Amino acid sequence: MCGVPSIAISLNWKKDETKDNDFKDAAGLCLPLIHAALADIEKGTFLKGCLLNVGVPSSPAANKGFKLTKQSIYSPAQSWQAVSTSRPQPAAHFMGMHQSLGIQLAQLGKDASAAGAARRGNTQRKTVEVESVAAAGKQQAREVVKKSFRAEFIEKLHKDLDDDIDVRALENGFISVTPLNVHGHVEPELEAPASDWLSAAVAVSEEKEAPAT
């Protein structure tokens, strides 16, 4: 990414299905890619002009192998909803009064994976709250009326997807490997080199795991 060799790895976390030890399994499955990347970086032959976005299925131990994929496509829709003006205290003030909650920050890794998995669903709702302030009635009274609104963003996954899309590959049990450029999509000329690199990385791993004869 921008001249820096990059690999992003995530686990397709599913509530009540994925277990804590699946993180360790997911990391182990990605080691062949990491080792191959480090070796190629030292030789100056690692893929240029893209990063590798690796997705591990929710049950890593039951994976069907690696698969080169394309980035899924989402289209956002926006709507505004009026909300109550009675809102809780800011998070910073709350955390300042309850410093012991900092211990629970260790859970953020799990929460981040859960959030990433949720994004791969058909929809995701993001909210942003804003406040509208206007004068009501006669100007002399200068009565101020405050109304709060929430902007809701819903991302819908395009339906006409083939099996080479990362979301579909993950749902089918494959480890998805998606080459992306800085704009979040892959250039056609990068697909062949990325495919060759992935095949070579997997082949080296299989040779190391093969029993000696």
What helical percentage do the residues reach?
25-40%
Query: What is the element string, with H for helices and E for strands?
Result: EHEEEHHEEHEH
Q: Please report which band the strand proportion falls in: under 5%, 5-15%, 15-25%, 25-35%, 35-45% or over 45%.
A: 25-35%
In total, the number of domains comes to 2
The number of helices is: 5
Which fold does the CATH topology of the largest domain refer to?
Answer: Stationary-phase Survival Protein Sure Homolog, Chain: A
The N- and C-terminal alpha carbons lie at a distance of: 41 Å
Largest beta-sheet characterization:
4 strands, mixed
Adjacency order of strands in the biggest sheet: 1-2-7-3
Q: State the low-pLDDT regions, or none.
A: 97-106
CATH superfamily of the largest domain: Survival protein SurE-like phosphatase/nucleotidase
Shape: elongated
Question: How many whole angstroms does the radius of gyration measure?
Answer: 23 Å
CATH architecture of the largest domain: 3-Layer(aba) Sandwich
CATH class of the largest domain: Alpha Beta
- The total count of strands amounts to 7
Mean pLDDT: 73
Structural class: alpha/beta
